[in-house]
Amino acid sequence: MSIPDHDNIKKWAGWFRTLPTLWKFITVVIVLILFGGFFYFQYMKLPSLQRDINDLQKINTSLSEQNKELKTEIMLLRKENEGLRETVAPLIRQAAKEFPGEEINTSLNKIIERMETESPYKKPIATLTATVEVLIESNEQINAHFMDRGGFLAFAKGTEPLLMTSSHESWGRQTGQGQVFYSGIFSLNATDSAVGRPLFFLKDVEYIQIVFDKIAPKSKVISGRAICIVNNLIRFEFVIPPQETTNNMIFIRDLSQFHQLLKESGN
Where is pLDDT greater, at 220 or 55? Predict the structure, then answer.
């Protein structure tokens, strides 16, 4: 403590001693209130306010993550809607061609009724959409729509693909549990060799191969599924088993149920 500070304290102490007893009491009470208020706000109120701020920040972060997830789901729904429009458009053209002059709803109903009387497994493949979801062990902090990083799903025999679906985009998000959820909607190209062939020809498929461009070459697959819809009529769901990816490739090798269903439908 410097000498001037000591003199100031001595000066205030002398002034305090000259005060009447009542004013001394009032002064002490005022000082205690001021110090009490200071300590209350410094060591009790401020930490409480800081905790409230931290809680609000956590809530804001959670809402932001939920908002991103909702945007991803909306994009997926839009993609599925586009696929449905691509399927319905040929039916509308066919209805207008075969039943000219009739209301479109009436002509569409006739087309649909005729299609329902035929075996969907024997119809030529016109469209196939594969919705693929894969859970990967990863701490990568992502939550994004990858506009230029898609992937593919292929039905293959040996080293040759019998049918291939693909897309130039995909989605990925961190679950918060050391896992990344990837998803994509892959479509059959109109020029694919499978177009026009009956679905039954896939009885020779030996495995399904899946690739996401964004997934690291060597990753641990926890779980997943692939939902394939053919001609907007037939739905197949395949389970992606746990595995280590090989050069970024994921495989589904157990196709026994798929083969059995094709065999039964082909009779």
Answer: 220
